[in-house]
Amino acid sequence: MRSYRSLFRTPEFTPFLLSFAAFAAAQTIGGLALGTLVFRATGSPFLSAVSMFGPQLAQLVGGVFLLSGADRLPPRAVLSGLGLAFAAGTAVLALPGLPVGAVFVVVLLQGLVASLGGGVRGGLMNEILSKDGYVLGRSVYNMVWGLTQMAGFAAGGALLVLLSPRACLLLAAAVYAVSAVVTRLGLRARPPRSSGRPSVAATWRTNALLWSSRSRRLTYLGLWVPNGLIVGGDSLYVSYAPEAAGTLYALGALGMFAGDLAVGRLVPVTVRARLATPLRLLLAVPYLFFVLRPGVALSAVAVAVASVGFAASLVLQERLMKLTPDGLAGQALGLHATGMAALQGLGTLLAGTLAQLTSPAAAMSLMAAASVTVTLSLAALGRREGRLPAVAGQWTAGR
Predict the structure, then answer these.
(1) How far apart are CA 261 and CA 256, in angstroms?
(2) Which of 160, 264, 364, 366 gets the most CB atoms within 10 Å of its CB?
(3) Angle 117-128/13-42 helices, nearest 10 degrees?
């Protein structure tokens, strides 16, 4: 499957994408509104960053205890329930006079519930699309995420000029509910991909199996750590440029869209496999210059260029699927999503702490330097690996 026409003719792919787009739009608008609300209430770059990205840390807990549900629960029911849970939680965040401590309790609970989302969506897309359509479908999925972020942050920034943060949170809650409805009406009911009941033991057992291969470990670390460090730096946009944070997030989403379009549709397969390290370096290097505190225009250009590097995730996800049997695809992608979210949360905590001790600009440059160091280290370790297995069924080849 090498054309967008054939991709969108695939039954259920369009409603699957629309439900995700609505969820992502709500997450974007709600996150910017919440970060602004917390920053206005506390004046703290740390708390503002954690309110937007800290919930990802709770996904680590979900990944440890709940992730077996990604393959053992009916996907439509999980995704519909996720949309409704986020709608309810975001409506609570809009309550006047809600203490900052209570805000963080709600967003951490949302993060815990969200731990199933990445694995369920990834596994479901694997079922909806044929094998040769996965990379193109995943690139479109990532592009929708980028476009939705771009539109959501731009719209969120404009809405915050016209409306209060609490009104924007209520709007986000309504969009989450729309996502749940589209999921329920647009997708057919499917049985779980794997037999057995979700359990902590099943989650641990499969996670250990996925982590047992050195090739998969390096792939997971490449997906998680450089990305998490840069997203941690990105969480400082509100404190770095309070009046232009929406613009920076929107330009970052535009760069992400361009990278996924190029890598998913235009770059030949033989070339794509060699782009993981260059793209991860591109993701970090422009931020090294933020220590000089460039103006908003130059910062926006740097953010857009750097965000093209997020397409490294597409390359590494393709590699992960080659290393993973079909029956474990949901949990493998769920482990990726959970680990990435957790590292983004840890990156946010680290970036916020550095910003409190130095400045948001210096913290962003330090996070970028750490990301470059990790990428080069992983590339050196990866060169010791032999060729990747040709097919997913060669389970022991990378051990």
Answers:
(1) 9
(2) 364
(3) 160
Q: Answer whether 311's CB lies under 8 Å from 340's CB.
A: no
Task: Indicate the pLDDT class of residue 178, thresholds 50, 70 and 90.
Answer: very high
Helices (H), 163-286: 165-186, 200-211, 214-234, 237-240, 245-261, 269-272, 276-284
Closest CA to 289 of 373, 368, 374: 368
pLDDT of 363-397, one tens digit each? 999 999 999 999 999 999 988 765 444 433 333 33
**Planar angle of CA 201, 79, 156, nearest 5 degrees:** 125
The pLDDT tens digits of the residues spanning 198-218 come to 677 777 888 888 888 899 999
Residue 380 CB contacts under 8 Å (≥ 6 apart), including other chains: none
Q: Can you list the alpha helix ranges (DSSP code H) found in 235-359?
A: 237-240, 245-261, 269-272, 276-284, 296-307, 312-322, 329-357
The pair of structure tokens assigned to 262 is 């190029």
pTM: 0.69
- Among 42, 246, 41, 91, residue whose Cα is nearest residue 160: 246
- Quick one: which of 237, 251, 258 has its CA closest to 154? 251
Distances (CA, A) of 131 to 2, 127, 150: 12, 9, 29
User: What pLDDT sits at residue 399?
Assistant: 31
Q: Does 277 or 239 have the greater pLDDT score?
A: 277
Q: Which two tokens stand for residue 202?
A: 């099943």
Distance CA 325, CA 124 (A): 15
